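INPUT
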Amino acid sequence: MKVINLGNRHDASFYTACELFNQIERKPESKLGLATGGTMVDVYTHFVNLLKMNDVDVSKVETFNLDEYVGLSQTHPESYHQYMQNVLFDQYPFFTASCVHVPVGDAEDLDAEAERYEQLVQESGPADIQILGIGENGHIGFNEPGTSKKSKTRVVDLTESTIRANSRYFDNEDEVPKQAISMGLSTILSAKRIILLAFGEKKKAAITKLASGVEDADVPATILYEHPNVEIYVDDAAAPDDMGREV
Ligand code: GLP
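OUTPUT
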């Protein structure tokens, strides 16, 4: 596993979109593990363009999102359901609704919902590609520092630092949900291939720790060392000073 500096957001996003596109071209019934956040917006823009230009049949593609905020309805503008509608499913409305999966953050029984989601992921089989962003504190999905590597989909408490970081998407910090339903680290590791992206100065510290070669529960993304097929692409601003190191 190695951190690769692709120079800029455009190229890394376009590469990732091409890989998702190629995956579907090769295997129309592919399973895609999808992520949200500012990092992924351009990936979906390029992906939608490729799908449109090539008139791709996505009816058999199954998608699984990593996480969802607790307490937000599916139509809340900052819910990850709504994010996915905006960036992908409304832009290319040919996915099969029953094949699109995002945890339900306003379910009456949240623990039961998390268990249902984990079972769905397991029964469906491993994602062909899982795309990942990374939190400023090194989280993946919403697996905050200290998360067990055996963790499955469950209700998680967000840390102060994540609430602060994600408040940029809300009117103010008080409106950021304090919990989420997130795939666990072991759920994420079940994917066949993982592509992690990080852009901007604010991600540099997390990427530097990820590039250190030391697995550390306080930097959840370092669990990726245990996966045989991970690619990590960053832009120049997020690249560690000490590039070129194999971990
Ligand atoms: C969020 C999401 C993660 C995402 C990360 C980075 O909290 N749960 O899946 O990768 O934080 O978000 P952004 O891309 O907006 O910086």
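end of record. Residues 35-39, 66-67, 133-135, 141-142, 162, 166 surround GLP (CB under 6 Å).
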